[in-house]
Amino acid sequence: MPTSSLAPSIETMLIFQLASIMQRILLTTLAATAVAASFTPAERTQLTKQLNAWLHEFGAESLPSGVNASQTEELLTRLASANKAIAGLSATQPSATFGLGPMALYTHEEFKVFLGRSFNRGKRVLRSADVDYATLAASTATDVVDWTTSTCVNPIKNQGKCGSCWAFSATGAVESAHCIATGSLLDLSEQQVVSCETKNQGGCQGGDEEEALNWIAGTNGGLCLTKDYPYTSGTTQKNGECLKTCAVQPLAVGSYVETPGEANLEKDIVQQPTTVAVEAGNDAWQYYKSGVITTCPGDESDHAVVALGYGAENGVKYFKIRNSWGTKWGEQGYVKLQRGVGGKGMCNVAEFPAYPKIKGTPVPKPAC
């Protein structure tokens, strides 16, 4: 049957699509060039100094995928945008300090994409709809709890450019729980979780820390040590093959318990470090350096971390959070989120708290 003369050929459609893509690239390039060309000599000198200092501190490996250190004009433009965002944050959130951290040269869209593929809300979307967060009590504690001063928290780790926050959140909580039960702090393999927990997870494309908790305690019967199964996905950005050659360490943990709400999270933290899902794909997290974050945009959770303390700083109550972006981010890898706001908590920190049950009698107590 002959083709209608009115129907465009496949070749024509491809040409139109290619032209559209090229047009978008051209417009983006022209916009960046226009911004770069608008720098005064003094601004260019200052930005160049900032860029060189940033590259010296964080290295080219901290640049977004597809961007390299030789793209000077592009990097200066990104740096100028970062400075503008930091100025805005500093004006609206005086309880925190913001600056050029390891992810400062990501565009807002690139940062959200990175976070968006790190965490999978999964079935919790439905469970969240069944919770009336407005009725949940806010945290009111006046004491201080900080598990980082105990012997049951490992040094900060770095997930790199793999969307594996869910694995780091789960192993971090399990490491501490096992230590609380036995007095022995193990360094457990996040790589084993990323590579081998494939039934409910997407490896570097995101996952669910609660499902990981159950897999570690149940299906897998424990985890190997990092020294026997080291983390590589942060640089390869690949899940890696599941290896069966390491010795799985039995752990004194059981299935997880989920306890929504700030008051419940407060009680959880007294007992043990707890996994939480947060809304991190925003400027406050991207440029955070220290202090207490007091505003988040109000989007969905996109990142999994560990809550392991609470207290107050300069009159502002906070939850202390362990992140997995290395020690050069935030307060040596930690962040404080305002406490006492009720509902889902600041940046959704109280939306999905969950901890692994501890088997046996706890040994150490949290230090204050």
From TrEMBL:
SUPFAM superfamilies reported for this sequence: Cysteine proteinases
A Gene Ontology molecular function term of the record: cysteine-type peptidase activity
GO terms of biological process kind: proteolysis
UniProt KW keywords: Zymogen
SMART domains in the cross-refs: Pept_C1
Family that this chain belongs to: Belongs to the peptidase C1 family.
Organism: Saprolegnia diclina (strain VS20)
Record-annotated Peptidase C1A papain C-terminal domain positions: 141-357
Phylogenetic placement of the source organism: Eukaryota, Sar, Stramenopiles, Oomycota, Saprolegniomycetes
Name of the protein in question: Peptidase C1A papain C-terminal domain-containing protein
PANTHER family assigned: CYSTEINE PROTEASE FAMILY C1-RELATED
